[in-house]
Design a protein that fits this description.
Number of domains: 2
Strand content: 25-35%
Keywords: Metal-binding, NAD, Oxidoreductase, Zinc
Cofactor: Zn(2+)
GO cellular component, one term: cytosol
Distance between the termini: 26 Å
Family: Belongs to the zinc-containing alcohol dehydrogenase family.
GO molecular function: S-(hydroxymethyl)glutathione dehydrogenase [NAD(P)+] activity; zinc ion binding
Bound molecules: zinc ion
CATH superfamily of the largest domain: Medium-chain alcohol dehydrogenases, catalytic domain
CATH architecture of the largest domain: Alpha-Beta Complex
Structural class: alpha/beta
CATH class of the largest domain: Alpha Beta
């Protein structure tokens, strides 16, 4: 095993949720033993994603408490397991952490790892692929759900699954790494939905509902792809200036118009070519589907409530040759797509740094408050 540091009984600070809806609590946890297909990563930064909050509140209750979450990590490789199939990585490399996947199912083999049939189990259940967790509260027998998205980046040190690690490409400056931490989830989801799934033509129109991290990175992708008409919609006026700065040709507060469907149809000569919903609100999704142009396609990215239903008139869909797609993680193949997005950021075409604010790891509660209050789009903690 290629190691320079110990890989057993590692004590590390970690933000732990003890019960649904309880605040994150800073704890010391102990990681028992690195497995041979894992890498020991010293976390430098972690983005905070809405999915972390979903699991903190217990809205999706499949990861037992206590749990250490976090899935937008950026860090340094400190040890590489002897069976980790990562000849491209060496100790000391900086990595961005993304989704985990099995490499074996038909979707993984077909370069769609975001649709891995084992994705839910590998990401959300708080255990390794073999069902174990490495983490206990220090000095106790209390197991902690860990390995969230294969990484649990709300701990300073982590045993990370081999497929999660994406090497930071050449030419990326160290000072930009905090702004790139969220490549592995939020950014690839937004940009990938537009670039990999919808593929809008320059002479087309697109509307994006919900101007958080995912919506704004979708907007940036539409901009760097040269889309002529880019419409951003939200219910908060304070989100509009940044959307404009990032390339929106129009911004609309949907609370300030009587009929958003008619309003956007009027703006786009009868219907919009592409649409992305990042809100997950069923009424917004229905409106989105009703404003599509002939051959228009809409994408669902925001997570709706479990069991939510929408009404679609299939005849209108047929006569309009319309499409409606579900999209996970922007259909990203992280080892290829994340370096591509990093290069766009370096060249000023994907300015995700404008979304970020960096907080000391001890200030995670402040970061969560600022996110809730709309004072920051992408909070990033610094370990
Ligand atoms: Zn798979
Ligand atoms: Zn996420």
């Amino acid at each position: 095993m290629a190691t320079e540091v110990q890989t057993t009984n590692i004590n590390t600070p970690a933000w732990v949720v003890h019960k649904a809806k309880e605040d994150f609590k800073l704890e010391e946890i102990t990681l028992d033993e690195m497995q041979d297909h894992e890498l020991l990563i010293e976390m430098l930064y972690s983005g905070i994603c809405h999915t972390d909050i979903v699991f903190q509140t217990g809205a999706l209750n499949i990861c037992p408490y206590p749990a250490c979450l976090g899935h937008e990590g950026a860090g340094i490789v400190r040890a590489i397991g002897s069976n980790a199939n990562r000849p491209d990585l060496k100790i000391g490399d900086k990595v961005l952490l993304s989704i985990n996947y099995c490499k074996e199912c038909k979707f993984c083999k077909d370069d769609h790892p975001a649709d891995c049939i084992h994705g839910t189990r590998l990401h959300l259940t708080g255990v390794r692929p073999d069902g174990t967790t490495a983490a206990k509260l220090k000095g106790t027998d209390t197991s902690v759900s860990f390995h969230f998205f294969g990484q649990s980046s709300f701990a300073k040190w982590s045993f990370v699954q081999e497929m999660c690690c994406v090497k930071v490409p050449e030419g990326v400056k160290d000072e930009d790494i905090p702004f790139l931490a969220a490549m592995g989830c939020g950014y690839q989801t937004g940009a990938g939905t537009v670039e990999n799934i919808l593929k809008p033509e320059p002479d087309s129109s697109i509307v994006i509902f919900g101007l958080g991290t995912v919506g704004l990175t979708a907007l940036m992708a539409a901009k760097y792809m040269g889309v002529k008409r880019i419409i951003g919609v939200d219910i908060f006026d304070h989100k509009m200036p940044l959307a404009k700065e990032l390339g929106a040709t129009d911004t609309i507060n949907s609370k300030s118009v009587d009929d958003i469907v008619k309003h956007i149809k009027d703006l786009t000569d009868g219907g919009v070519d592409y649409a992305v919903d990042c809100t997950g609100v069923p009424a917004v999704i229905e409106n989105m589907l009703n404003m599509l142009a002939m051959r228009g396609t809409a994408a669902t990215v925001g997570v709706p409530p479990t069991g939510a239903k929408i009404n679609i008139d299939p005849l209108v869909f047929l006569l309009g040759s319309r499409g409606y797609k579900g999209c996970r993680e922007g259909d990203s193949n992280p080892p290829v797509y994340i370096p591509h997005l990093c290069r766009l950021q370096r060249d000023g075409k994907f300015p995700v740094e404008k979304l970020c604010r960096v907080y000391d790891y001890k200030d995670i509660e402040q970061a969560l408050h600022d996110l809730h209050d709309g004072k920051v789009t992408k909070p990033v903690i610094k370990w």
